[in-house]
Each structure stands twice: as structure tokens, then as C-alpha cells.
Write a structure and sequence with these properties.
The chain contains 13 helices and twelve strands. It is α/β, with parallel strands linked by helices and 321 residues long. The strands form two sheets. Strands 7-6-8-9-10-11-12 form a seven-stranded mixed beta sheet, sandwiched between helices. It has a five-stranded parallel beta sheet with strand order 2-1-3-4-5, with helices on both faces.
């Protein structure tokens, strides 16, 4: 009788332990292509973050990946596929990918979304208020910093083309700080809309017809996806250009200043861990970026005939030679 009672008492504990150790599911929707050089480092950073909290793919969590390669139709289809798998949480990169999900019930953690409030994803940063939270990837005031850095490295510039994707609403939030800073330096700001690869050559060629031009490339999936094309074109027309991410500079761009992308992926793993442990996105404040990096490509500077000031080199987090 006692043995029977002991067995009955132990069963709920065993059942609870088994339930606690069930395989969890994470859906991952990436805006870039799987063969993009940035893809695997980002996923590696995310997985390292998860492992720090005890989650390992194939052991206690199953991760389903979808790679949209900046294709809107594919992004929507993959979003539907992930939702249909009924994951415990979805991890998503970029504003378009987050918009494609559309679910109000499955918890979502984002990175790479500059303005989640204006896009209607959250009510406020402190109190997201729904099923979505994550880490923003920009402070819009850095638009003025981009202008100042360009002027430091190329003091003769008189015009700056602001390469903006009209379909990326957050891009307009950078315009105010950029244009104010440009005006203060007596630099003429010129908005240059680009939506696909066919726009780049025409717009850059037209802009380069006048002397003393420079370029600011605003963040968007289209500029990210076509970064090699952009870097090659501004090099051809000898336009000093600043970019929002390191990977543009690594691809041959002159200079970049922006958030450390891999750091946001590692930090996002903490929120995924919290959701898997029962937390609600509504109770997890949207985090601002905390780690920024200035990267300068000396080889490109020399090719443009620019001498990088020593004080700028001293400020750089990385110098590519």
C-alpha cells in the first residue's frame, strides 16, 4: 500500500519534469538570403546567446529557419508557414519581415526594426502592450553624426545624396537630423529615392555629374541586399560615402557608423529565453541599441584620394587596411 501511494505521489512530479523538458519551438524569419555572408555570423550570435541560457537546437529546442532574400512574396509565404508550425516564439529581423507576420497571438522578438512605434508594432518602448518586443537598431539622431563624419574625412564636400527607400517608412525619421546637420555645414542635402537595383546606377550617375558630392546610405533591406552594387557604383564615381553597418565597409565601402548587429542578435536571445520561461512580450520593454561601431576602410580612402585624419582613426573601432 505504501509503495503504491509512493508511486502515485511520485507520478505528478515525474510528469511535471517531463512537461518542463518538452521540446520548445522557435521560428526564425530572416530578411536576408541564407548564403549572404552576414547570415551565418548573425545566427551564430543568436545561437550562442541561447546556449548561454541553456537552450540548444536539437536538444531542448527546435529552430525552424526561413530566409526571405528580400523577396516580399516569399517573406509573406514564409511568415504563414512559420505561424502554421505554432512555435512558442518567433524571432524576426527587419521591419518588412515583422510586418509580414501579422499574428497577434504568437510571441515575437525582433531585431533590425528602427521605429517599432511609428510602424504600429508596439504602443511604447517601455510598455509594448502586445505580443511583440525586441531591440531597435538605431537612434535617429545619428543622422547628424553621419554628416559630421563625412565632412571630417572629406572636408570639401558641398552636396550629400541621401539614399532612401520610400517603402521603408523608418528611413524618413533620419532625414530631419541629416538635413539639419548638412545645413549647419553649408552642405546641400538631396534626397535620392531608390527602390530596386535598377535605380542605383541612374541616380548615382545623375548625382555625380556635379562636383564635391557625397552619399549617405540609409538602412533598408534593399540597400543591404544590393550593397555590393552600391559600393561599386560610388567607387566608380569617386563619391565619399558613409553607411549604417560594418558589412558595407567590409565589402569595400569607405566608412560606416552604426549599431553592432551581432550584439543585437546575442541580446535578443535573452528575450527569447524569457518568453520560453513564461514571460509575456507586453511586459518586456523594447531595448535601445547600446553598442555602436565606427569602421573605416583605409584602402578605399586612399583610392578616393582622401587622407583620414588621425583623430578619426583614433576614434575608429576598426580600421580595414
Amino acid at each position: 500500500m505504501l509503495a503504491a501511494l509512493g508511486g502515485a505521489a511520485a507520478w505528478p512530479l515525474a510528469a511535471r519534469a517531463q512537461q518542463a523538458e518538452r521540446m520548445r519551438r522557435i521560428g526564425v524569419l530572416m530578411v536576408i538570403a541564407e548564403n549572404d555572408p552576414e547570415a551565418q555570423p548573425r545566427i551564430a550570435a543568436f545561437l550562442a546567446g541561447l546556449q548561454a541560457f541553456g537552450w540548444k537546437d536539437g536538444r531542448n529546442v527546435r529552430i525552424d529557419y526561413r530566409w526571405a532574400a528580400d523577396d516580399t512574396d516569399r517573406m509573406r509565404a514564409y511568415a504563414t508557414e512559420l505561424i502554421d508550425t505554432a512555435p512558442d516564439v518567433i524571432f524576426v529581423s527587419s521591419t518588412p519581415a515583422l510586418a509580414a507576420l501579422g499574428t497577434r497571438t504568437i510571441p515575437i522578438i525582433f531585431v533590425g526594426v528602427p521605429d517599432p512605434i511609428s510602424n504600429g508594432f508596439v504602443v511604447s518602448l517601455a510598455r509594448p502592450g502586445g505580443n511583440v518586443t525586441g531591440i531597435t537598431n538605431f537612434e535617429f539622431s545619428m543622422g547628424g553624426k553621419w554628416v559630421g563624419l563625412l565632412r571630417e574625412i572629406a572636408p570639401r564636400i558641398a552636396r550629400v545624396a541621401i539614399m532612401i527607400n520610400p517603402e521603408a517608412p523608418s528611413g524618413s525619421s533620419f532625414l530631419g537630423p541629416i538635413e539639419a546637420a548638412a545645413t549647419s555645414f553649408a552642405i546641400e542635402p538631396i534626397r535620392v529615392p531608390v527602390q530596386d537595383a535598377t535605380d542605383f546606377e541612374h541616380t548615382i550617375e545623375a548625382f555625380a555629374r556635379e562636383l564635391n558630392g557625397s552619399v549617405i546610405v540609409l538602412p533598408s533591406p534593399v540597400t543591404q541586399f544590393h550593397r555590393k552594387v552600391i559600393v561599386a557604383l560610388v567607387a566608380r564615381y569617386r563619391l565619399p560615402t558613409i553607411y549604417p553597418y560594418r558589412y558595407f565597409t567590409a565589402a569595400g565601402g569607405l566608412m560606416s557608423y552604426g549599431v553592432d548587429v551581432l550584439d543585437t542578435y546575442r541580446r535578443a536571445a535573452y528575450y527569447v529565453d524569457q518568453v520560453l520561461k513564461g514571460a509575456k512580450p507586453a511586459d518586456l520593454p523594447v531595448q535601445r541599441p547600446t553598442k555602436f561601431e565606427l569602421v573605416i576602410n583605409l584602402k578605399t580612402a586612399h583610392a578616393l584620394g582622401l587622407k583620414v585624419p588621425d583623430k578619426l582613426l583614433a576614434l575608429a573601432d576598426e580600421v580595414i587596411e
